[in-house]
């Protein structure tokens, strides 16, 4: 009797698993705008690095390249064009 119950429970669980849509990334539903992400990252880097980071230049490059080169504040290679020596 327990075996039949477990089998039915298993079949119901598998049916629910395959019948319900799974959405793991909300960016796919809402749309992903690389230029918006690029400009937001420029603002975040400006907050983190202050006067050493040229935020305006970063945002202008986001517009120029249409968000293809997204800066990462923890990756020196991606932000090096926007750093100054003060």
Automatic annotation (TrEMBL):
Belongs to the insect eclosion hormone family. Disulfide bonds join 38-62, 42-58, 45-73. Residues 1-24 form the signal peptide. Coiled coil: none annotated. The keyword Lipoprotein does not apply. Pfam families: Eclosion. Neuropeptide that triggers the performance of ecdysis behaviors at the end of a molt. It triggers adult behavior patterns: larval, pupal and adult ecdysis, and plasticization during the molt. The lineage of its organism: Eukaryota, Metazoa, Ecdysozoa, Arthropoda, Hexapoda. GO terms for biological process: ecdysis, chitin-based cuticle; neuropeptide signaling pathway. It comes from Danaus chrysippus (African queen). Its main location: secreted. Keywords: Disulfide bond, Hormone, Neuropeptide, Secreted, Signal. GO terms for molecular function: ecdysis-triggering hormone activity. This is Eclosion hormone. It is found in: Secreted. One of its GO terms (cellular component) is extracellular region.
